[in-house]
Amino acid sequence: MTKLEKYKGIIPAFYACYDENGNISGERVQELAKFYLDKGVKGLYVGGSSGECIYQNVTERKEVLENVMAAVGGKMTIIAHVAAPSTRDSVELAKHAESLGVDALAAIPPIYFGLPEFAIRDYWTAMMNASSLDFIIYNIPQTTGYALSVNMLKEMMSFDQVIGVKNSSMPVQDIYLFKRNAGKEIVVFNGPDEQFVAGRIMGADAGIGGTYGVMPELFLAANQAIEDSEIEKAQEIQIMIDDIIFKMLEAKGNLYDVMKAVLVKRGITIGSVRAPLPRITSEDMSIVEEVYGMIELAIKKYSL
Ligand SMILES: CC(=O)N[C@@H]([C@@H](O)[C@H](O)[C@H](O)CO)[C@@H](O)CC(=O)C(=O)O
C-alpha cells in the first residue's frame, strides 16, 4: 500500500455543527463524525466550505477538529482545512491540527485581496513549514477568485509535503491537467459532486464533497461501481445524485441548511447555518421532504 492509499475513496466535507444558540456543539460534531464512520467512508474533510470555516474564529475551528479527533481520530483519514484570512491564523491552525494527529492539511489560496502567485505560494508554504504533515492544495476558483495554474502546480509539487489537489474547478479536464503536470504521483480529489463519476473517469483518485454528507451511501455506491468498471451503474447513480442536488438547489435557503434539515430526517441534528448564509424558509420544507424521499428511494433501489 502506498502512502497515498489512505486518501483514496469517499471523503465527506464535514458540516458545521451548532447548538440551538448557534454556538459550536462538540457533542453534535462527535455524533456526526460517528455517523460517517458507521457509513464506511474513507475519511473526513474538516473545516472547509461545508464546515463554514469562513464564518468561524480560530478557537471555534480548533474546537471542531478536537471533537472530530476525539470521536473518530485514528479510525479514518482526517484532512484538516486550515486556511484562514491571515497567514498567522492559518499557521496556528496548522500547528494545532498536527498536534491532534490529523493525516493532512489542506488550504485554499488567500481570500479577498487578489494576490500574486508568489504571495499565494508563501501563504501555503508557511502552513507547510509549520508542520510535517502532508499538504493538499485546494483549488476552488469560483469562491476564491484564483485558479491554480500549471506553473504554480509545478512549483508547489517540488515540495515533498504536497501530495495532491482538491479540485473544485468545473472543467473536468483540469483533473487530468494536474495529474499530467504534477511530475510525481499525486492524489486528485474531485470537488464538484455533480460530476463525481466524470471526475473519477478522468483520473480523480477520490472525492471530497459537500453533498456526500447527506447521502454518503450513494457516493460510496458510485465509487464502488467505478472500481468495479460498472460504468452504466455509476452513471445511473450519478444522475440520481444530480437530481437530488438540483432539487436541493431549488430552495431559497442555503444548500447547507437544506442538507442539515434532511439530516434531521435521517436522525442527525446539527443545528442551522450561520449568518449571512440564509436559512431555509417554511416553503423550503416541501423540498426537504422530497429530497429525503429521493435519498431513501435510491438507497432502497441499490440495497445500500
Ligand atoms: C463550490 C462548492 O461549494 N463546492 C463543493 C461541492 O461539494 C458542492 O457543494 C457540490 O458540488 C454542490 O454544488 C465542494 O467542492 C466544497 C467542499 O468540499 C468543501 O470545502 O466543503
UniProtKB/TrEMBL annotation:
Protein origin, superkingdom: Bacteria
Active-site residues per Swiss-Prot or TrEMBL entry: 138 (proton donor/acceptor), 166 (schiff-base intermediate with substrate)
InterPro entries named among the record's database cross-references: Aldolase_TIM, DapA-like
Binding site for pyruvate: 208
BP GO terms, sorted: N-acetylneuraminate catabolic process
GO-annotated molecular function: N-acetylneuraminate lyase activity
Keywords for this protein: Lyase
Gene3D superfamilies reported in the protein's UniProt record: Aldolase class I
GO CC annotation terms, alphabetical: cytosol
PANTHER family per record: N-ACETYLNEURAMINATE LYASE
Family per record: Belongs to the DapA family.
Name listed for the protein in its UniProt record: N-acetylneuraminate lyase
